[in-house]
Design brief:
The protein is an alpha+beta fold. It has one domain. It has four helices and nine strands, in the order H-H-H-E-E-E-E-E-H-E-E-E-E. The strands form two sheets. It has a five-stranded mixed sheet with strand order 6-5-2-1-9. Strand 7 and strand 8 form a beta hairpin. It is globular, with a radius of gyration of 17 Å. 30% of the residues are buried.
């Protein structure tokens, strides 16, 4: 099953809404209100990712982090996966979904590391950085979702450096609909492993996690875990 998604990257997501939508004007929340949101989110993650223990383990880090009342600068990438999305014209695109927790709220972008194994058992490593949040200033909530189109990496296709340099150079007021596609391979067991991590403006990085492949369908009833059936 696929969902219709219209992306506006200019704004940030609030937890209890669909992660594929970005909302404007998130109001500041009190400590207890944010804690309630985090608890709600963690429960949802555990329900929808029951067969992914590593995702649930990372979700379990969120509540203690918030309750310690100390700003932890290292971001947490709770999950990341590829999904197939139906567009308004009924065509399909491939998108990457990420769920991020960052208490000092200074995410800059994502890194991708790929390990390809050839038929002759030769190993090739690809590593790229994508500053998708370069123009974002956000505050008020430490966790949010990100949803962006991707170009599937075929025949050693690499990041379009020119487009990403243009994206970084544009005026902040004009960037919303100009985020270039992220280039990534479809993970294949024993052939292509893909790890993703988040980095911030101070150089902090999340732990790399494996990109999940939900393109061909998964045991999740829908791609976005916040959609109730």
């Amino acid at each position: 099953m696929v969902i219709n998604v219209k992306i506006n990257c200019k704004i940030r997501a609030i937890l209890i809404v669909l992660l594929s939508l970005f909302l404007t004007g998130c109001k500041d929340s009190s400590f207890d209100e944010i804690l309630e949101d985090i608890e709600f989110t963690v429960n949802k993650i555990k329900q929808k990712f029951q067969e992914y223990p590593d995702v649930k383990e990372r979700a379990d880090l969120l509540i203690p982090r918030w309750e310690n009342q100390v700003i932890d600068p290292e971001p947490i990438l709770v999950w990341t996966y590829l999904a197939k999305v139906r567009q308004d014209d009924n065509s399909f695109s491939y998108n990457i979904s990420l769920f991020i927790y960052d208490e000092d709220m200074d995410v800059l972008g994502m890194g991708i590391t790929e390990e390809h194994i050839s038929v002759h058992n030769q190993k090739e490593i690809i590593e790229e950085l994508y500053p998708f949040y370069f123009h974002c200033n956000y505050s008020g909530h430490p966790q949010f979702g990100y949803w962006n189109p991707v170009e599937i990496r075929i025949e050693r296709k690499t990041k379009n450096e020119k487009k990403w340099k243009e994206f970084v150079a544009i005026k902040r007021s004009a960037w919303a609909d100009t985020v270039p596609p992220i280039c990534v391979s479809i993970p294949e067991y024993g052939k292509k492993d893909v790890w993703v991590w988040i980095y911030d403006r101070q150089g902090n990085k999340s732990r790399p996690i494996k990109l999940l492949n939900f393109i061909g369908g998964s045991k999740l009833k829908m791609p976005e875990p916040y959609i109730d059936n």
